[in-house]
Every structure is written in structure tokens, then in C-alpha cells.
Queue: 3 jobs
Job 1
Amino acid sequence: MGARNIVLLVTAAVLLAAVAWLLPWTRTFLVIAMSKGLAALGIVILLRAGQVSFGHAMFFAVSAYAAGFASRMLGGTDIAVMLAVGIAAAAVLSLVVGLFVVRYRQIFFGMLNLAFSMVLYSILEKFFEITGGSDGLRLSRPSMFGLVLQRNDFDLMLVFLSIALALGATLAVQVYFASSYGQALRAIKSNETRLEYIGVSARLVLLIGYVVSAVTGAIGGVLLAALQGLASPSFSYWIQSGEFVFIAILGGSAFPAGAFVGALVYEGVRIYAAAFANDIWELVLGLVIIGIILFAPRGLVGLAVETFASPRKREAVPDGSVPMTNAAPAKGSAEQ
Amino acid sequence: MTMPLLQVKDLSIRFGGIIAAEDVNLSVNPGENLAIIGPNGAGKTTFLNICTGYLSPVSGTVHFMGRDITRLAPRNITRLGIARAFQIPQLFLEQTVNENMLLAITARHTSLSTIRPLGTSAFRDEAADILSLLKVADFAARPAQELPEGTRKLVDIAIALALQPRLLLMDEPTSGVASSEKFAVMDVLVAALATRGVSSVFVEHDMEMVTRYANRVAVWNGGRVQKSGPPQDILDDPEVRRTVIGH
């Protein structure tokens, strides 16, 4: 990970924070985009291994509910506690579910995840006494690292926190991708047999990736629950999982930052399309994704990298895969 | 008498009506380069698959350095010191040759991490040495999927060597390598195996390669070891000439 890369990411984060500071009406939008971006980052991690989960929203939901229960039991709590509890709950759930799903690949991996997420959805909806059923679980507004804030200040601080966590998660995932376990995760996509024959358990490698991906999703879930003051079963619904996959592909599944670019564009299109084309906004999004798949399969970030990369660089990666660890960052690749 | 490095006893496996191995007894001694020859479909690759844990035999045992490895997983057998090079090279296609090598070296040291970047400078030097040994150092920075077929074979062997095995199993090591290069590559490879004290088993169809590089030849036919002995004796045997070599 080059210094340029870090500088660009930090600059982007500061710009987003400035927007939130200056334009209060963007705050809710930005928190939602960062939360969903964090969940889509989990999909980016799994796609690194060539796998896709259609049930990743289960970690989004379980962390939101865990944070909600913590808040309820403690009679109100701090965002730091909510994050810690949410992450822990998702880590434990992903470890348990992961032990089953990492035995499968491709569509079986995707559908098994979907099944687990829908089981969670049913539990959340049916156990009304505990979970609040389809009404969801109400959360009182948490304190922000010890500070008890009014609505406006809370929203601003929550945006800053969301952006900081998104930045931190992006950098952490880049470090992970460059590490030996990250490289082994990538190796699952091309040759699991060889991985076994160098003495590495592909299932362990995927399980680690799965838990990491659940944790990023968990952060998103807690942030969204804190924003809305509500954790609802829809957090775990399959359409929510599909949205995360959509966002990852839209932004560029080869790039951690793609998850956030995708989320910003997705939420943006959704808001405007809903406002100006209420009946057909889903159609608009559908056309956008068809366009991306046909004309820019590496997503928006991939498109930016191709546009700004030097010709020599483009020639070096004719298949369109950008090496993320061993080459000097090309112009624009710092967008990663 | 020294203990054999690899010892296979009464090994049997069949696929439907096809007998790939039936009561096979075979051992590989330290320092040996054993060639396995035989007609297509005789069960040679199946034998390698069993020795590396990819398949389990119906009956019989495989011992490596005195330890029963019959039903261990490939990764556990690899960690004990048996490496494998494949007939169809098995590489991490999206990654560079160097990354392929570094993953193997890191795995050998069981020092995989979620934080530390892949490859220390010592690992990089080691990778470079092995790649130079097999004359593929020029390809180090190239993604594996861009390599010509012959080079893929050599990188596949390089990965196996990077694991510093006691025993290297190779399935037609030079098929796909340009014929002008074959002997040069095998000269270097066999010398490297000798220097590093690595024994080998290789499946081969090219009798010239067998004569030149094997200390011992086992003839695999119809799921049995038809004969085993020094290369010249085996290749001169009229029955072997008729059934395997075809002239």
C-alpha cells in the first residue's frame, strides 16, 4: 500500500467530513452510505476468494440487535460499547456459520449464506417478546465516547465516526489483502488444490476471510442502528444482502474503496431516482448495474483506474486485474 | 539396512471395473530417483494421488519415514515433507510467479499472518534462488496465467522445491517443456535434488529421460508393479519392451 494511496484515501475522507459539516442535510445520507459501504466491503473480501454471499446482511442485523440488547440492558449506553458488542456478536456468529459455509463454494456458498440469513430474519420477526418482531428493537440515542449529545451534534459526530471507521476499515482490509493470509485468500479463487499442496487449509483461509468480512459488516449494522434508533428484521432480509452485493459490484469488487464509492453512488441514485422517478427508480438502478457489468466490469473505481493509469500500466495488466501489492500504484489506483 | 523413505504395502484401489492398484508393494529409499513407467491408464497418477492423500486406498498402507500417512489430508502430508509437482501445472493464476513462490515458502515456515505483508527479504532471496535454478527467474514478476506452458511446468516444480521436501513426486516433469530444454532442465533439477538431499519419484513416458535420470525404474501395468530394477535391466527386458515401450 503506497503512501499516495493513503494520502488519497485520507483526503477523500476529509472531503466527505467537510461536506457533512457544511451541508447538514447530507448527514443521514452519508451515515447510511458508509454503513452499507462497510457491509459491501465484506462482500469485496469474499469476492477476493471468488465467493459471493447472498446472506451477508445477517451480520449487519446481528450486530445491530446485539448493540440494541446491550443498550436496553444497560438502560442506554455508549457508541463504543455498542460497536464492541456488535462486532463480538458478528464475530461469534460468523465463526459458527462459517464452519459450515466454508465447506462449500460458488452458488452453494452463496445460497447457504442466504439460508442462514433468512433463518435469522425469521427468528427476529417471530420472537416478538424478545426482538420486538417486525416493529424492530428501539434503541435510545447512545452517548458518543462519554459525551451526551443533542440530536444535531450527535448526527454530526456519527457521520465523522462513520467516515473514520470506513477509512480505517479500508486501510485495514488493504493491509489484510497484502498479507500472506490475504494472498492465500486470493489463491482460493484460482487454485485451491495447490493451496492444499503447499500445506495450507483453504477452509481455514476462507474462514478467516469470512470472519473479517462479517466484522466489517457488523460495524455498518451498528452505525445504521445508531442513526435510526432502530434495529429491524429488514436488516437481515435477503434484499438487503442483495443490495450489498450490488454496491460491491457497482463500486468495483477488486478495490476495498470501491465498496464506499459504490455505496455513495447507489444511495445517491436511490434518493434522486426516488424523488424524480418514484415508480421506476429500481428500473434505473437495474439499468445502471447492467451498464456497469457490460461496460465496466471492474466497477466505478476500476473505470477510474483505467482512465487515469498510464498506457504502460494498462498494458501490464491486459486481463484487467490490477496487482494491489507488488506494483507501484498507478495514477488513480490510490482510489483503492 | 536403512529404513525406506516411502513404503507402500498391499495397496489396492479400483474405480468401478478399473483396477488402478492391486496389492502393490513399493518403496523409495533415501537418495533415490525412482521412475514409474507404464501404459496410459495403468494407475501411475493414482499412485501419486494416494501417496499425497488426495485419494484413499481401499486397502493397504502408505508409510513416510516410518509414519502411517495413509489417510492424512494432502496439506498434512505436505507438511511432513512430501511435495508434489503436477502433470497439469497447479499455479495461483491471478498472482505473480513471485507471489506463488512466497506463498509456498511462507506456508513452509507456517508463518501466515493477516497483517504482515507476504514475503520477507530472506523469503524473496530464496524464491529468486529457486527460480534461477530452474531458469525461470525472468518470469518472477509476471502473473502465472500469462506464462507459456513449459514455464508453468517449471514454476510448478519450483513451488514444490520451495517447500523443501524430503521427497518430491513429479508427474511427467518435462512434458510441455520445449524438447531442446528438457535435458538442460532435468540436469539442473536432478543436481539440485541431490544437493538438497531430496529423493524423487517421477512418472515418465520418455525412455531417454528414464535412462538418464532414474536410479531405479518401476513398471506399472494393470494396477501392479510388473517389474522394478535398474533402468538398463528394465528397459532391456523383452516383456517390458513389448508391453510398455511398444517395440
Job 2
Amino acid sequence: MKKHFKLASIAAAAMLTASTAMADGTLVYCSEGSPEGFDAALYTSGTTFDASSKALYSRLAEFDTGTTNVIPGLAESWDVSEDGLEYTFHLRPGVKFHTTDYFTPTRDMNADDVIFTFERQGDEANPFNKVSGGTWEYYNGMSMPSLIKEIVKVDDLTVKFVLNRPEAPMIANLAMDFASIVSKEYADAMLAAGTPENLNQMPIGTGPFQFVGYQKDAVVRYSANPDFFRGKADVDNLIFAITPDAAVRYQKLKAGECHVMPYPNPADVAAMRADADINLTEQEGLNVGYLAYNSLVAPFDNPEVRKALNMAMNKQAIIDVVFQGAGQIAKNPIPPTIWSYNDAVQDDVYDPVKAKAMLDAAGVKDLEMKIWAMPVQRPYNPNARRMAELIQEDFGKVGVKAEVVSYEWGEYLSRSKDKDRDGAVLLGWTGDNGDPDNFLAVLLGCDGVGGSNRAQWCYEPFQKLIDAAKQESDPAKRTALYEEAQVVFKEQAPWATIAHSIVHMPLRNEVQGYKIDPLGGHIFYGVSLK
Amino acid sequence: MLSFLLRRLLTFVPTFIGVTVVSFVFIRLLPGDPILLLAGERGVGEERYAELIKQFGFDQPIWRQYIDYLGGVLQGDLGTSFVTKKPVVTEFFALFPATVELSLCAIIVAVVLGIPAGVIAAVNRGKFFDQALMTTALVGYSMPIFWWALLLIIVFSSGLGWTPVSGRISFMYFFDNVTGFMLIDSLLSGQKGAFLSAVRHLILPTIVLATIPLAIIARQTRSAMLEVLGEDYVRTARAKGLSPLRVNGQHALRNAMIPVITVIGLSVGTLMAGAILTETIFSWPGIGKWMVDSIFRRDYQVVQGGLLMIASIIMIVNLTVDVLYGWINPKIRKG
């Protein structure tokens, strides 16, 4: 009996020892969700991109980590023709695809891989076009089918993209996740073996980490790619410990079960800041939350009315109540982290008295309107219902009676596009490629009326500026055009620009070199553990 | 016996078809277009929308879609997830063992602790233990799972460091899934410490998931025992001079177990509902969270396929139980 008790005590002591210690050289990231797959071009979610394109793949051009600047990636350099219709990429020699226990490449990355990467997305005859139910949402969403005329192999290390029209953001587009370069040799081998879907499930890339294994909804394992063209990563192993609940992620970080966690609860931020073991880093997010008036419906077709309503809105109260410190007031339709952000623009001052006078001057009396509140949480709007109620109260103070309405998310997105929509819509946008065109043209261009342009605002002087910028390849001239476009936007006020979120990234103190990606990704190349 | 089995199997067929209809219709009754939800704020052009509608087969009349679905089901094909682009059957069987493992542990804990607690409370009716147990059971029954789980994590994981916060096993152990049951696979792996790690990861989720069934079983056992303890045959047994252990354990408990077993059976449904929250909080990769995520995304194929798989498994279990009843009690198979 005594012996049994002793054994039981030893077992209990072993069970109750401190929680899992992390192995040296292994970085553990408590990710917020499961990747849908590992072929980034098939998907659209940031969670999937973190686990696939950011860790496993490289692209012709890359975003310099921590910025939205584009730098050479698998292409060492590129030339753009005078007319902006031909982009010639000079590929980096000697780039190796991953060697794993399920694939050993026999050649280096070359032009065939680049052509295959895009052809499978755009050419229905390509045998990989329908593999894994490919719908290629980003490739289509970025208008690649109408933009790319052909992709030509000049030689093994030179590839030329011929376009149907000039597109200044082309290089930034090719730095996006959907443009991650996949191995044609591996794809051919999988096709021959009758397992083409392995391209998505057992990925091979040229990125800083290579795939080791995935246990669904639990853990993704990677090891450092010893042949990575920028040099081997500082950590030997990378683990994504999938932890959907933010409160639990925080507890895991505190317990030392992970080194990095994304998306903390705003309510936990103060405690994290006070925690001696945690380094809370922060940066503005590449997003904007806004209230879009319907500029086709009276009285919102009058810029003075829109401006007056903007002045009636107490944005600071919204930031304090809705964002709880995890946001900042937006004055432009693009976030401050994006190049060409016009800091000289003055925001509408909160002045209910003047706002009321402006409404009176515009002949608006006893105005009744609807405010649409999104039924979902987003970084640019963590609580749309509360935000709508605050705006409702502000509008009430200037004699505008507002009713808050909401719909199921799919319905909301669909109905808010209607040109005769009744009311102003709360919505927002998170940038894809760090290019101002990705905000200004998509959300405010004439092509987007009846679609992504929820203000239904088509204003010729603004459109001319963004069209000119899109066709201009000189960055300085593009910047000037976008800066002017922001001034026009502010004068016309098709939206009330409300907030940009602030991204908080809690790290354990031993984590060194982590940079917050303004594009919203989580990148672990360049990160080390002390 | 053979005709009884055939009769039961025949009732299985319309039930199965009914489940396919209900699971197919249920998700389509919810508002929300899966393509628009998939596209999000980015939206999708009219032309592209039409292409996708065609690609997913939504351009077909609803009855045609159902016939195609049923045809696939009969061939063992439950379709492919819109979101992950992977076969539903593959995803289901990758996650199902985790849910079964957790639910089994929870029900074992609930039964092993709940029945003795109920018996002791009944025998000591009105005394301190009885009062304390019934109060605790009421608290356990009313406990919000999310709050209870976080409280345990904060105290035992972050505070005392006794148990891991979440997951099924430490990432230090890596081996192939053989059965999908972590306790078994960790033993089969032969890796030192793996089994212990799997056990440690099970402790808190099991406690959380077992809390409500444990409270229900304890209360049910107590009330069933109180009823039986007043019966004449129990008085007779006492009068014969049998020991209290024999009277309570052999004569009373055996007869009190019938309603308790029914409650244990019904607790399986409670466990499935509780598993959704428990799996989310403890990052437990099971089917509860998978189904909920799929409902929010209107991932039709996963929801209808997942519901069908769960319903089928419950139907098979019920069929087996019915057959066993019929085998044990001839009155039932002749009924």
C-alpha cells in the first residue's frame, strides 16, 4: 500500500510539473484559426496566408517586412516598357525549392515555375485549374484575367508579362499572396502520381520555412529551409499552435506555451502592457472604417449635407468607446501606413452647432435616415451596433432622426450595393497590397458604383486623378496625384472616415526582431529567440 | 430474432432518408449566400457570381441538387467543403476521434463520480453532505461553461502551472495518427512522456465537459435512490439484518439504476452541445467547432455532411442497443 502511494505521488508530481517548456530554437505562434489549405492562390483569408504564403513561399517581388515597400524577391530585378505594357523579370539564379521527405527537386526555380503559377489560375485548360476546387478568387479579384495578355518565357531566368493596359500597381500585385511561386516540377510529379491535390496539402515552396506536418485544427509544424535564398531563418522550427479564443491565447502566452499571439482582446491590452514578461508592440492597421452616405439619394447628394453630418459626429467618443484604445481617428480614406497618405488634409472638426447651421443653410429640416450596422466584428469596426448608436445620438443633437438597422452579413453586403439604398452604411476595408489604388479606385472609383463603392459616388475630378495615377509609373508623380485625390475626397465627403485600427502584437520578451506587418500578415523570418 | 432485426433495419431506411432531407434543407433555410459570405467586403462581380453559382451547382433546381447530393451520399461522397476545398468525409474522420475521446472521458468521470455521490447523498438525506452535494450540483448544472473553463485555466494553468492551457498534446511530441485517439496514439508512438502529456492535456477539458452531466447524474441518482429506499423490499432486507453496504449497493442501487441509465444516455446529447464550447476554449480539434464554423460560413456541404454523419452514428448506436434489448428481453423483440 505504501509503495503504491509512493508511485502515485511520483506520477502526480510529474503530472503537476510546470506546463510545457518550449524547446530551444523553436518559435511557437498561437495562431487564431486553422489554415484552409497551403496553396495560397486558392484562398482569401489572412489566417491561411500566414500559414502558407508567408512561411512557405516566395514571390517575384516581396513587401519589405514591416513596410509596404516592394523589394526584389525571386526576381532580382525587372524592367518596365515605356508604354507600361511589358514587365520583364530577371529571376534570381540558384533558388532551391524545398527538399522534404516527400519531394526532392532536381532543378532550381526557373521561368517555367513562374508561368505555371499564373497559368493554372487563368487558363481553364491547365490540368491544375480545377484541382482542389480552384476558384482563384484573388487572381480574379485583382482583374488578372483581363489584365494579363500573355506570359512569355524569354529564357530560363527571364520571364515577360505582357499586359492589355498599363497598370502601375502591377509589381505590388505580384507581391501579393496569390502570386506565390509554386514548383511546376512538383506539380507534374503529383499529377503523374494521381495526387494533384497534394500541391495544396503537402506544399513545396521556396520560402524561409518548409512544411513538416499539419494536424487539422490543432498544430502546423515547419522547419527552417536550409537553402533559403536570403539565408537560413534564425529559428530551427516554427510551430503554429491553433488557438481560436483570444483569452486562451493570452493565457498560453502568459504560461510560456507560445511566444507570439495575434489579435488580443482589447480588454486585455492594459494587463499585457503591465506584464513584465510580455512586450506589447503596436502599429496602425492597413485599414479604414467608414460611414458611406448614398450620394445618389437626396439630401445626401449635396456635399454640404454630408459635410455637416461629418461635423456632427464625435469620432473621439467612438474611438474611446468602440475601440477601447485600439484605434485612431481616420481623416483620409487610406491609412497613414500607406505611401502617399496626405497628412496635410484637415479633418472635419466636431462642431454640432456649426453642423446644425450648415444643415439649415442647405434647407434640410426634420431629416430622417437609416444607419446600417454590420452584424460582424472587424478590426476596422469591432462593434458596429455600438458605433451606429453613438452616431445616432450625435445626429440626434443636430435634429437628424436616425434609425439603426442591420441584416445578415451576406444580405448586408448585397443590399448595401444597391444604388437606391436607403441610408448610410458602416463598412470598411483592409488593404491587399499597400497600394493607394487598392483603396481609392476599389472603394471610390466610378467602376465600383453599384458594387464596392458603397457611397455610389462617381466624381469626375477625383476619377481623373486616380486614373492618371494608375497609368503613371513615376512614384513621385503618382504620390502627388493621390495626395490631390485625398483633398478632393475630403471636400466632397462621400464618407465619414471614422477609424483605423491599431494592431497590438504581444510577444514574450525572449522574441527578438519581430516586425508588425502593416499588410496584416504574420511573418517569422528574421525573428530569433534570446 | 432475424425478423426483429429486419424490422429494425427497415425503419432505419426512412429515418436515414429523413435525415438527409432535414440536413439538406436546414442549412438552406438560414439566410445568407455562401458565395457572398466567402467574398466578404471584397465582393464579387455579377459575371463571376454567375460562374461560381454554376460551378457549385446552385443554378440547378433544389430537387435536382438534392438528388445529386443523395446520389453522392449513397456512393460515400459527402461533397467537398467550399472553404477548405477538401472532402467532407476526410475532414470529419480527421476530427471525430478527438470529440469521441473527450466525450468518453467526460462521461466516465461523470458516471464514476456522479453515481456514488448521489447514493451517499440519498443515504444521508438531509444531512450536511446531502445539502452540500445538492448545492454543488445546482451550481455545476447552472455553470456557464465558458466562464468555468477560463477560471480553471487561469487558476490551474496560468496560476499554478499544473496543467497545459490548451491543445491535445505538447508540440514536442510528433507522431502519425494511427487511431486518432491521442491517448492510444501516444502510447503506440513509444515516445517517452507522450502519454503523460496527452493525459495532462485532457484534465481540464474533461472536468469542464463533465461538470453538467455529473451534476445531472448525481441529482438523478439521489432522487431514484430515495424512491427505492422507501420500498418494502429494502425495509425487508434491512430487517433481515443485511449490512447497509449490501442493502444500498445490491438491493437499492440496482433498482434505482434504470432511470439513471436513461439520463446517462440523454447526456450524450448534452455532451455534444457542451463539446462545441469546450473545444473552442481548449483549442480541441473536434467536430463541434468544425460544425459551428461551417454554419457561420454557410459551408453547405460540410453542414449537411457533418449532420448526416453524426445522425448516422447515433442511429447505428440506437440500432445496436435495440438489437441488444431484443436479444436480452424476448418481450421487446416480439412487441
Job 3
Amino acid sequence: MDTAHLHRLGEVALPGFAVGLVGGVTAGGLAAVVGQPTGWALTTMLALGLPLALLGGGYGLLIAYGRVRIGGFAPVALYWLVGFPIARLIHEVATRAVLTGEPSLPNDLIGFLAYQGIVSAGFAIGFLWLHERLAPRWWRRVSGHNPLAERVYSGYAAHAEAMWEAKQARKRNRATR
Amino acid sequence: MDTSETPPAGQPSGEATASHEVDQERVWRAGKLEPMPIRKLPDAPPSIHLLGPTVFLVALGVGMGESYMWPRLVLVFGPEIRWLFLIGVTLQAIVMLEMARYAMATGESIFFGAARVFKPIMWFFFTVAILVYIWPGHLSAGAAAFEELTGIPWLVTACVGLILVGIVFSLAKIIYNLLENVLSILIGVLVVGTAIIASLVGSWSDLGSTLGGMFAFGYFPDGMMSEAWFPIVVGSIAFAGPSGMQQMWYTLHLRDSGAGMGSHIPKVRGLRHAGEEEKMPSRGFMFDTSDPDEMHKWRGWRRWVTWDAVLLFWGITMLVTISFTVLAQAAARDNPNVAQLIESGEREAALSAMSDSFASVGGPLLGGLFFGFIALIGLNATLGLFDSFSRGQADMTYHFVPGARRLKMSHLYAGFLWGVIAFGIAILLFGPADGPSGVLDILAFLSTFAMGAYCVVLLLVNNRMLPKPIRPKWWTNAIIGFGAVFYLGMLFYSLFAYGVVVS
């Protein structure tokens, strides 16, 4: 895989990466605001934000390769049902490692994962919401030099074009009346 | 009223038209006001375009009711009380679909529809909106949380916030687009953040009891039917999801986002761009309900709004409120003082104690996060409420105050917006030192009454002002009728049985 191809993949994955990162950064950022030690805030930002961001980017790639339906809720919910508990587990283990010096798993691992799985549905709604807001605009911006982004954007564009044409038709009707 | 005898929309009915040009036009007559010309219904967007105008409703609905009132009831009566929440929110989802029916079929607001039935009903809503929504109570809750977070006095934040809201909406080229973008991002961050906070502090057992409680139908603890608690329970059900007139304003947002026949109505613009506004038509439009193609498109629009309503509104309201209940339970478990404060109704003190409790468990991080999200909820509610209030009042003024059409809709919108901002600042600075909670109590009473009233209006408007093929089914009417009895019945039961209004 050459650098140019990697660059294109990165561009397509960027919106999902950014949205995933928002979760961790919001948590870490607020920690800094309330005077939490920088180290603690950074741990949360990295240990939660990074896994969520990587998984978010992964979702963008799945869309780009046509593996999941654009904007559909069910695929996103399934994706985060697996992904969110993993990200939280990484965060939990890393935080324990920073606080106590040695990494350890949560006491009730099954209960922990099950609970995170349920909460993931909420995260999935928010993720899809933000992703659908940001991604199409970004993909359009980079579609000039990125064929991958162009392909996925064209799905959105077809819809937008139909709406725009309907609007123009209405304007013409008004003008001729 | 001639609607039941009126020929189905689409059939020519050339009477009562003055000019020769309009003489040829096919119209739909609804009530005694100006008939609606027949126009084409646009195609419904595909489901992937799922981010519709429900964002506003969610923004308004995900307010203090979810973050405070329900956790309080859960702590007092146990999680089983949440079956009432489920009923309240589900009822609101059906109301939302019915509000959308009229707005999408005509491009008119529900206020206009009410005026078609009987004009004084519309003036009633015009007055209630002013009485209820000029109080800046909703803003102070978020600003108080911001003070806890940053130390900036809440009064300063509230006043600066009010002026900022006014400037933002005045400068926007097309208000709807800006509002939708800003609110969408805020709501997105709120939803993602709520999920993460819940994932950090909650546990499997908290969630299990909260979810299970929603299906404890018929659970009436003894204490609930008392003078002290019944009014609070009624108020909390009214506050579940979008309360008060927010559902009525939803019809204006649907119109402005071009849903259904709303696509034939120009958008409202910010004050700076008011000059570019197209002439606002004096009434809405109707589509040809005798044309199978048009009916096919109509069903597409109904699917779109159903998807919108159920997934976004119902899902997010449930998510946020379940999360906050889990948070309240976690806080009360760690610190019994929290339970006491929440039960006594000291909202600010309780929120502060909840934050402290989270701070003691997960470090200041969680305490700060909690206040950050209370502030965010306050900001969302303020943005949405001010815009919606001004939109609704401007719409009624433009169409029904003699001479108002000399002004543009955007000018009227700006007038109401800055009016409510100026009044808000004056109240904050010199108003009764009663505190924000006092204002919310009055609001709850009038909200409940308005909600009962709009259920009646919906029944009248959708069954008498729309062509037969697109009227609601009998079971939808039954649910909306139940809503009217539910809201008004509980309100007056509370008044007569206990001698107190809802709170």
C-alpha cells in the first residue's frame, strides 16, 4: 500500500475519527477545566479518546468501501455494541495502570461489558448524528483529489441534487406566474 | 363549517375568487379563512436524510425535566414510577406525528389551523405563549451550573448569553440553517457525552432497575396520591419530552425546513438579511389528494416524519433521561445527603451535591463533567425556546394582526426576539428574587393546560380542516383524545382534590 493510498484512506476516515475523539477530549478537557492534574486529564483523553477515534475512523472506512449502508442506524448500533465496550475496557485498564502502577481488569468483567454494551446504543445515536452532519461536507471538500471520498460523497450528492432541482423548478414556476 | 361536505381536494371549486387569474385555480376550503390553492407535493427525502427538524424538539425536550424532575421522583418512589414517564413520552411522540400531519399537508402552522377552526383559540395560545415563555427561568438553571464550573457569576453569564442569542439569530442569513447546525452539534455532543458519563459512573444494577421500572404499569405508591406529591407527578409527566407549546412550534420548524407543502413557503431570515426575504403567502397550500401519485409521495413524507420522530425524539429523550436517573441513583447511593436534597426539591443544592458525589467517586473530572452537561442542556433549551417563541408569535401576528403584513415576517421575528431578550434581562436584574425554580412552577401549570388544549385543537384541525384521505385513523384520534383527558383531567383533579396546581 503506497503513501498516497494511505493518505486517501486517512482523509475518508477523518470525520469518524474526529467524532470518536470528541468523547474522550470532552471528558479530558473538562478534567483540565476543573483543575484536575494534567496527567490524569491526558490519560482519559488518550485512553478513551484514542480507541473511540480509531473505531470511529474504522466506521468511515466501512462506509467508503460500501460495507455498511450510509446513515443507517442499525449498522452503527451493531458496530458500537462491540466497539464501545472495548474502548471503555482499554480506558479502565489504562486508568488503573496510571493510578495504581499496575494494570488490572474491572471486578465484574461480564457485568461491566454488558452495561457498556447497553450504553453503547446511546453513544451510537450521538455518533451517527454528528458523523452525518460532518462527514458529507468533508468528503465533498476532498472529493476533488480523492476518488474514494468522491465515490462515497456521490451517494449524498445524488439526493442533494434532486432536492436542489426541485427548488429551482419551484423558482422557475414562481417567476413565470 | 363546510369541510365535511367539501369536495375532495383537487376537484375544481371556483367560487369566491375575486380576480380572473385566481378564478381558474383549484383550491381546498378549510374553515372560513382564505382557501388553500392546490400545488404539487415535493418528493419525500430518503430515510438516510434522517436529521430532520426533530432536532429542535429534542433540544427543547431534553431540558430540566429529564435532568432533574424524574431522578427526583425515582429517588422518592423508586424506579417503578417510571412507567408514567414512558406513557408521557409515548403520548408526546404520537402528538408530534399529528402536529406534523397538518403542517406537512398545508405548510401552515398549527396556530393557523386553530384560527381556521375558531380564531379565539389561536389568540388563547398567543396569550399563553407570552405568559409562559417570557420568563428567563430556563436560562438561569444552565447559567448556575456554569457558575459552579467556572466561578463566573450566573447573572453575568445569563445576561451575556441572552444578548449573544439575539445577535446570533439577527445576523444569520437563513435562521433555520444556522439553528439546525448549531443545535445539531450541541445535541450530538450532549448525547455522546451523556453516554460516556453514564458509562463511567453507572453500573449494571442501576440500569436494570431503571429499565425495569418503565414497565411497572399501574404502580401507584401511597405517597404519590398526596397533596405534596400528586401535583409534582402531574407536572413531571407534562415535562416528559417536549412540554408546553413546544410541539406547536415544531410545526413552524417543519414548515421552515421545507417538509411537505412547507416547501412552498419562503424561509424566515435574520434581521440583517430581512431585505432578501420573499413575500410570505397569506395562507398555506394543499396537494391533490385525489391523485394517486401525490398520495404516494404523501405516504413517503409520513414515513419520513415517523422515522424522524421515533428514532430521534423517543430514542434520545429516553437515553438522556435514563442516563440522568442512573446518575442520580449512583449519587444517592454514594452520598445519602444527595437523596435528601433531591427529595426536598432544592434543585441547585441537589445538583451541586450530585456533582460532589461524582467527584468523590471518580475525581473532580466527573463532578465537572456533570455541571458541564447541565450547562449545555440549559444552553440548548435557551437557544431553541427563544427562537421558537419568536417564530410562533411572529407567525400569528403576521397573519392575524391587521396591518402587520406591511412588515416582513423577519422584522416581526426580530421584534419578538429582542423583546423577549430585553424583558429577560430586566427580570434577571430587577425581577422578583424568587429564584429560577419559582418561575418553572408557574410554567408547569400553564404548560399542562396548553397541552390539554392543543390535543383538542389537533382533533378539530386534523379531522375537520384536512381532506378525508389524509385525516387521522380512529385509533390515532383515540390516543390524542386520551391525551386531552389525561392532561386536563389530572390538572383539574389536582386542583379540586388537593386544592393545588401542578408544579
